[in-house]
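ESCALATION

Customer reports they have been waiting on this structure for their group meeting. Please prioritize. Original submission:
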Amino acid sequence: MYSESFIPAVASLGSLAFVLGIIILFVSKKFFVAEDPTVSMINALLPGVNCGACGYPSCSQFAEELVRTRNPSMTCPVGGGELAEKLGTALGITMAEPKPVTCVVLCQGHNGNARESAEYVGIRDCWAAAQAFAGTKQCRFACTGLGSCIAFCDFNAMRIENGLVVIDKELCTGCGACVPACPYGVLTMQEKKTERYFIACSSHDRGAETRKACDAGCTACQKCVRECPEQAIVIDNFLASIIQEKCTSCGKCIEVCPTKVNCILLERDMETVKSKKVP
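Update from on-call: job pushed to the front of the queue and completed.
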């Protein structure tokens, strides 16, 4: 048997819900703002992955801002030049074509090159390992190979091989979502070029310490700096880096690099080709 107070309570709650529904309906009608059909059209052209590479949290926000400002410099790295042309046609403006970029791994610390510091047993997450101790390898700047970055890639362009993250250049769209997901900073975005040389190392330790930790680590020996005719290589905090805008891909830096496994890599035609010292 229901108590005498049950029915009035239900009736009271039902009445309250009805009144609130009426209020919500009124407010939604009163403050309804019709969406610009142009925004919907532009949003439909965008990839819809909401990766943030354009500088906006979502594709819809990018579409709204583009329609509002008609700013031709706004670009979608994922869509590339083909999308830029479609957006320009839809808006009646000439859109800037984004420079194609790709993700590059600044580390060669796979299980054959890098020495382990300890066996890690725990959550398969780079950030968790970083909190527990410096990392899974003696080099505290090395890729841990636990793959936190993979969860942020919507294009299946990343995988772990032999304790090191590997980028599939054909699938990578250059969105950059993976870069902040790495606690060690071994991921970076670089412009796609027919040939690109880069220092595949992130270690800022002194040379002797780097050599103990990894066969492919940069020791900041300065030989590549002195050999480069374009002055495209600089040393900062015990680590060499190549200024891509100056590099002419002459390859002289690779010839003088003394590391056991050359820390300078060449990417050619979207395929990673290791230097002549690596079989």
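Sent to customer with the following note: The chain has two domains: 37-91, 101-273.
Escalation resolved.
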